[in-house]
Amino acid sequence: MRSAANSAHSGLEPQPKMSGAARVLLLTAYFIFSRVHADRNVYPSAGVLFVHVLERESFKGEFPPYSKQLADSMNDPITFKTNLKGFPDRPGWLRYIQRTPYSDGVLYGSPTPEDVGKETKIEVTACNRRTYETARHTLSIHITAANDYPMQYQAEFFVKNMNVEEMLASEVIGEFLGAVKSVWQPNRLAAIDIVSALDRGGRVPLPINNLKEGVYVMVGTDVPFSSCLRETETPQHLMKCSQQMEPVISCDKKFRFHFDIDWCKLSLVDVWKKPASNNNLVFGDGVLPDDGEYDPPSTNLKSKDYYTDFVITLAVPIAVSLVLFVVLGYIMFCRREGVIQLVHHSSIQKSTKELRNMSKNREAAWPLSTLPVFNPVTGEIVPPLHHSDNCDTSNMPLMQTQQNHPLQTQLPQQHGAGQYPTSPSPSIPCSNHYPIDYHAT
């Protein structure tokens, strides 16, 4: 055989040797191709919680540069997209969560008995958010039956201080099952499903005080419920829950150290227990009585006249608009002011304008006609002249100059104390004076 092989090789043309760079490139391409199209097989059981972590570390070496050491040093953000092969979304029982591009993604859910024996292929596409390079894996899920472990009794807890990705961690879910075992004390206990409170209609918590979304955790076993769990079905417990009060459970201290349980939302279910049937129900034979042939309504229905409705709809608003228009026109055009009112308002406006012009000269000297006259010889003060109201002041100036005043050159006469001189003075035109309190000055 060896000689035949040698003879066969001797008949072939010599092949050119591959360079080292080309060989490295070919091996790298083969490695990437094998990693992209590699299938991963998992075998979850129906009715039991399935958790699969999409680790970012396993995808870092598939993006350029193809070196895990360089990828670890760069720490690129990576996101995942999961879907059923050939379909845009995942199966109904399978859920996915990834909180940030720098955290691992998690596929979780509880397979249904209808999916037993079916091979479910999930395409996992990883995207490097820095370079936008993609890598693809295929996850093959083979669902098996779980007939050897019946879970007749199931309890659903609501954990208020946990998010779903925190609860899915293996050490956290293991610690929670340990706390349930200490309360329930079954031989075997399994987690059936984990659901976020947001999927049950819960509200997104405020980003304060490290608030959590909350998680519903369902566990099951073949052992009946313990007395501690049965306390949630007592009337006292139900009354406190209806009053928005926190009930007191004897086994709460088993969970309080790590898990904050809402005991008002605890649900206990016996899946093998048939619901109570109502014996008063009387079932018929399922056949409708014969009432003859069905007579549909006639197609020749009388048409409805909408003319009256149309007229009323338009006539009433138009009539109201016309009345308002007439009233407004009468007020604007028929109720005009007379000439007397116009003249009156015109005089008021003219006086106002004159007063405003006079107010601009407030810093000018006071008229001498309004000030008391001081006699430089005797030192006596002569009051200003007052004129009767019948004086004609239409043609006299408003202010009198001090040189033209006749009392400045007249010598005072001797009079009694408290009296002003009463010497005659030539007549001067009347002027308007304002009274002044001389004693105050």
From TrEMBL:
<protein>
    <recommendedName>
        <fullName>Epsilon-sarcoglycan</fullName>
    </recommendedName>
</protein>
<dbReference type="InterPro" id="IPR015919">
    <property type="entry name" value="Cadherin-like_sf"/>
</dbReference>
<keyword id="KW-0963">Cytoplasm</keyword>
<feature type="transmembrane region" description="Helical">
    <location>
        <begin position="310"/>
        <end position="333"/>
    </location>
</feature>
<keyword id="KW-0333">Golgi apparatus</keyword>
<comment type="similarity">
    <text>Belongs to the sarcoglycan alpha/epsilon family.</text>
</comment>
<dbReference type="InterPro" id="IPR048346">
    <property type="entry name" value="Sarcoglycan_N"/>
</dbReference>
<keyword id="KW-0832">Ubl conjugation</keyword>
<keyword id="KW-0966">Cell projection</keyword>
<dbReference type="GO" id="GO:0016012">
    <property type="term" value="C:sarcoglycan complex"/>
</dbReference>
<dbReference type="GO" id="GO:0005794">
    <property type="term" value="C:Golgi apparatus"/>
</dbReference>
<dbReference type="GO" id="GO:0042383">
    <property type="term" value="C:sarcolemma"/>
</dbReference>
<keyword id="KW-0472">Membrane</keyword>
<comment type="function">
    <text>Component of the sarcoglycan complex, a subcomplex of the dystrophin-glycoprotein complex which forms a link between the F-actin cytoskeleton and the extracellular matrix.</text>
</comment>
<dbReference type="InterPro" id="IPR008908">
    <property type="entry name" value="Sarcoglycan_alpha/epsilon"/>
</dbReference>
<dbReference type="GO" id="GO:0005509">
    <property type="term" value="F:calcium ion binding"/>
</dbReference>
<dbReference type="GO" id="GO:0030425">
    <property type="term" value="C:dendrite"/>
</dbReference>
<dbReference type="InterPro" id="IPR048347">
    <property type="entry name" value="Sarcoglycan_C"/>
</dbReference>
<keyword id="KW-1003">Cell membrane</keyword>
<feature type="domain" description="Dystroglycan-type cadherin-like">
    <location>
        <begin position="41"/>
        <end position="150"/>
    </location>
</feature>
<keyword id="KW-0206">Cytoskeleton</keyword>
<keyword id="KW-0325">Glycoprotein</keyword>
<dbReference type="Pfam" id="PF05510">
    <property type="entry name" value="Sarcoglycan_2"/>
</dbReference>
<dbReference type="InterPro" id="IPR006644">
    <property type="entry name" value="Cadg"/>
</dbReference>
<keyword id="KW-1133">Transmembrane helix</keyword>
<dbReference type="Pfam" id="PF20989">
    <property type="entry name" value="Sarcoglycan_2_C"/>
</dbReference>
<dbReference type="GO" id="GO:0005856">
    <property type="term" value="C:cytoskeleton"/>
</dbReference>
<feature type="region of interest" description="Disordered">
    <location>
        <begin position="411"/>
        <end position="441"/>
    </location>
</feature>
<keyword id="KW-0812">Transmembrane</keyword>
